[in-house]
Amino acid sequence: MKLRQNPRLGERLYETKLTNGLTIKLYPKSGYHKTYAILTTNYGSIDKTFIPAGETDYVTVPDGIAHFLEHKLFEKKDYDAFEKFGRYGASSNAFTSFTRTSYLFSTTSHLKENLDILLDFVQEPYFTAATVEKEKGIIGQEIQMYNDEPDWRLFYTVIGNLYPNHPVRTDIAGTVDSIAQITPEALYQAHATFYQPSNMNLFIVGQIEDPDKVIDWVQANQGQKTFAQPTEIVRSLPEEADDGHDIIPYRSLEMPITRGKSMVGIKGLTDYGTGQVALETKIKMNLLLEVLFGDSSTQVQHLYDVGTLDDSFGYEFAIQRSFNCVTLGGDAENAQELSDAIIDVLEHATTSPDFSEDNLALVKKAAIGEYLQAFNSLEAIANQYSDEFFTEVSPFDVLGLIEQVTLADLKQMATDYFKIEAMTVCHILPEEANHA
Amino acid sequence: MNQKIADGVDLNILQTNQFKTIRLTVQLIAPVTTAGLTRRSLLASVLGASSQNYRDQVAIANQLQAMYGAGFNMNAYRQGNLAIFSISMRIVSPQYLKDTVDLQEQAIAFIGQLLLHPDVIDNQFNPVIFKREKENLVRYIESVADDKQAYAATELRQLYFQDTTQQMPTYGDVTDLATITPVELYAYYQSMIANDYVQITFVGNINEAKTLTDLAHLSFAPRAVVLPQIFYQQPLYNKIQTKTEVQNVQQGKLNMAYQISAYFYQEDYYATLVMNALFGGTPLSLLFTNVREKASLAYYASSAIDAFRGVITVQTGIESRQKERVLTIIEAQRQRIIAGDFEQAVFEQTKLALINQFKSSLDSAAYLSQQQFNQSFVPETEIDAEQFAQAVLAVSKQAVQEQAAKMQLQAIYFLKGVDTDEA
């Protein structure tokens, strides 16, 4: 078992890999009452074209299947996993993103029993035509609900503009039409391919009395099961233009809202790989965006003063397997004015009055503080450090990575990334009042 | 450690090494009023936007960044019959930093600066900032209508509560807001600072020896405090209040309010807590399993207690044409509890879930801080995890049945989508 630690912080992380390929990470937190465990497969909504385990040809499956599978795994022939966790008072949940699916529970007692439930329900699929049909109603409602949410529509319109082909453009839950095509066979196939132990990791954080004993429990559970020989997972993604010429530059929609919304998206045209390089890129881009658009930005303060933007303004850098992009925006009286202003700041990033050594020093100090504060949250620790994408990096190396970033790094980042041909804009405007 | 600093000003310190942070909270507490809610909500924006030393939000942000990304929040809310104006900060425990910095004193001074040295010229708030913050708040209030779940909750509140102060959302009333001037708000502020009951709460690895000296940056004069009972009560309606609205949305929202007689940690509280958890308060509940899972009728269906105001609300997102069916199924679940028609195993599990929830909340500094507040108004809340577990485990099936029978349906609000026909 590998041990990484930071005595100054009083934090430590154990890591081991079982013979069946499952990675286990244990992160004991003294003083905590709760234990949080999360089992993750490196499989998300974008993995729709792949070679199924044991086969030789690519298949393309309906949009939304990873999310559908996540919902359906809870239901078994003779039990429901939610309820089974409930027998010990534990609460459980799951989520699907573009690139991962995670199943989790949190408990204050019976850790061993809950771990068995988690591993068993995720690793032992059970689907029938009837249960699959029923789920279509529930997920259909979920999809409809999101369609009413303006911020969600804004985000997906921007992503759709940036990625004309890449499956990231589609809602993680799929569409009502795509989920209608999902069958038990397709779910079994996806499970056999992506839920191999070698494609998964188990992260446990919080009250852990004896790490060795926990490893023994998991090992015993896995020892009772037979797994197929691990196979290499082969995925395929559609081509997208390297220079961004296929990006749709602008779209606007109308919705029943009182105030408009505006968002600028920038597609990362470079693949930054995985692990340390990807993490460094993430840290640099977040510092750059904070320098230009964060709380201490005089340019943003000015836009706030003149009413171009308000407190809803925000930005996000998403960097995951096979794509990375920046989104910036919020509510606006005049959606055009806000997107123009954002693009103006991006285009003149390195000559911005906020682009200074002093501001970077402050922004880094804040980033260090926020990094330390995140160790309070079991969920934050587990969700962040169970992502396969950054897996080889220790949580305790992040501090050093933040400290070493220079203004020259940010300049390089801005020059490489903020290209007008990689940008898109979406506006959502208040509908004419028909239903007042 | 709890100590009185002056008349009407109390300090609570919860010393713990569990967290990487220190949490500091100052709460100004007064009887809730309609005018007060709106003014306090505007004050939370205005006081957080500038002060005598920090002239704008960039200056404030720079100071927070310099304090290693300190978290800072000012907000106004209501708890039963009380209005609370709250300022809280979260700082890194200084022992984890490479540099030697007295973040505790800096944070207390920062709160003192924003709260006690506002940006005031000629007995009024800086008019430029005032105007902007007021406009932003108006817009925020108007935008709540865009979030249909929040909108339905607001409408249900108006329908259910008889007291206009309780009907009002925490952020206040937009018409009243329009009339407030910088002069009037400053007068309200002065009265709040001079007269409100003040609670200061610190959670974390606190340098206790220095605390009182540090608090020189945040000093309050003695005050005489008279507060009402925290719990709000109202008589029953003769007939159920209903309202239906049609909007161009895909998903309908059906929300309901039931009056209950149990209050926060008072008589029958634990039985009501278990009953609500069984009804719609957890993912194992009857509403979740029967409305959402079994009948496939809703994306969400849950219930929640407001134990300071004696009400349980039910919220659902549904296909509009299913409204009558959903109503019937919701009421049928309550009848099942009354009849004792629920599995013993589910009953036991629900209790374990509540105990798990309580123990888990002890891992949150924000919760521990809120507990300090609760204890000063409801002394019965001063219990540990073991006592809580015992009290929950002692709740009988019969007690739960009785509490379900005591629920009185009082209000039904329906936001109907236009794309579907009512069956």
Explain what you see.
The complex is a heterodimer of chains A (436) and B (423). Chain A has 436 residues and is an alpha+beta fold. In chain A, 39% of the residues lie in helices and 21% in strands. Chain A has 15 helices and 15 strands. In chain A, strands 1-2-3-9-4-8-7 form a seven-stranded mixed sheet, with helices on both faces. In chain A, strands 11-15-12-14-13 form a five-stranded mixed sheet, sandwiched between helices. In chain A, helix 9 (275-293) crosses helix 15 (407-417). Chain A is globular and about 65 Å long. Chain B is of the alpha+beta class. Chain B folds into two domains: 2-218, Cytochrome Bc1 Complex, Chain A, domain 1 (2-Layer Sandwich), CATH 3.30.830; 241-417, Metalloenzyme, LuxS/M16 peptidase-like (Cytochrome Bc1 Complex, Chain A, domain 1, 2-Layer Sandwich). In chain B, the strands form three sheets. Chain B has a six-stranded mixed sheet, with helices on both faces. A five-stranded mixed sheet of chain B has the order 9-13-10-12-11, sandwiched between helices. In chain B, a hairpin with a 2-residue loop joins strand 1 (2-6) and strand 2. In chain B, helix 11 (286-294) runs antiparallel to helix 12 (323-338) and helix 12 packs across helix 16. Classes of the chains: A alpha+beta (436), B alpha+beta (423).
Summarize the structure.
Chain A contains 15 helices and 15 strands.
Task: Describe the secondary structure blueprint for this structure.
The complex is a heterodimer of chains A (436) and B (423).
Chain A: E1 2-6, E2 11-17, E3 23-28, E4 35-41, E5 49-51, E6 59-60, H1 65-73, H2 81-86, E7 91-96, E8 101-107, H3 111-123, H4 129-147, H5 150-162, H6 176-180, H7 184-194, E9 200-206, H8 211-223, E10 234-235, E11 250-255, E12 260-267, H9 275-293, H10 298-305, E13 314-320, E14 323-332, H11 335-347, H12 357-373, H13 378-385, H14 398-403, H15 407-417, E15 423-430
Parallel strand pairs in A: 3-9, 11-15
Antiparallel strand pairs in A: 1-2, 2-3, 4-8, 4-9, 5-6, 5-10, 7-8, 12-14, 12-15, 13-14
Helix pairs in contact in A: 1-7, 3-8, 9-12, 9-15
Chain B: E1 2-6, E2 9-15, E3 21-31, H1 34-47, H2 57-66, E4 71-79, E5 82-92, H3 103-116, E6 120-121, E7 124-125, H4 127-143, H5 148-160, H6 164-167, H7 174-179, H8 182-195, E8 197-204, H9 208-214, E9 241-247, E10 252-259, H10 269-281, H11 286-294, E11 298-306, E12 311-318, H12 323-338, H13 344-361, H14 365-377, H15 385-393, H16 397-406, E13 408-417
Parallel strand pairs in B: 2-8, 9-13
Antiparallel strand pairs in B: 1-2, 3-5, 3-8, 4-5, 6-7, 10-12, 10-13, 11-12
Helix pairs in contact in B: 1-4, 10-13, 10-16, 11-12, 12-16, 13-15
